[in-house]
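Quick start: read one record
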Amino acid sequence: MREWWLQVGLLTVPLIAVYLHIPPPKLSPALQSWRSSGSYFTFQNRNIFYRDASGAVGSSDIVVLLHGFPTSSYDWCKIWEGLTQRFNRVIALDFVGFGFSDKPRPHQYSIFEQASIVEGLLDHLGLLNQRVNLLSHDYGDTVAQELLHRYEHNTTGSVLINSLCLSNGGIFPETHHPRLIQTILKDGGLLSPIITRLSNYFFFARGLLQYINQRRKHRDRWVGALQSTSVPLHLIYGPLDPVNPHPEFLQLYKQVLPMSTVSVLDDHISHYPQLEDPLGFLNSYLNFINSF
């Protein structure tokens, strides 16, 4: 038995060593185009990637898109063109640690920092004194909640929020069910450094997943911001979501936030509704925007 495990170990070690030195794959043409259409600004010595597209001439409305974990602003690619036909400006960024933005390590990633980066971007673009519509997903929902809290408390330099649309995020820690890989990385333990290293930069730092613990710690602050706001509020929900499962999540959402309107997409739509059903997602969002 001991010899068998020794042989497996001798075989595994060089394979892992080879794997860890494989260069990352080249960007697809679509991703290359996405990056070339964007720009960078500097926030606290970090380079942050963003896209800022001019859209509908007859509109003065601005929409800011906040992506989820562990992806990037490219999550919005399938509805980007549709948004530019409705909004005067469509703005999206890659949070620090994601996409084409800097990925410092070690680094204490936090929702508060990401919210400040959004404020920094709008300040960079000269838009802090203009009202914007926030459209968020997953991790971005929590960033939006922090931005809403700052807006409701008249924090200096806060984003002026015209409306907020959330989608498939862990708004309530009690109905959020992270995947096994997220739980392992979040809580640490013996497997965490191994999985972090082997997961090819998506989970390069366990600190990125501390937002799950932050949601629990700051639940009253972030859920309270949604409960007390007079900002038009909407939810677009893919009901097959294993992270925020139906009907548990939706029942609590409607109970806690009865003033919010809700769009539930088709039964087969899951955690990434803007990618799985871009037309349904876009129509739901524009119906919300056009309703006030």
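The chain has twelve helices and eight strands.
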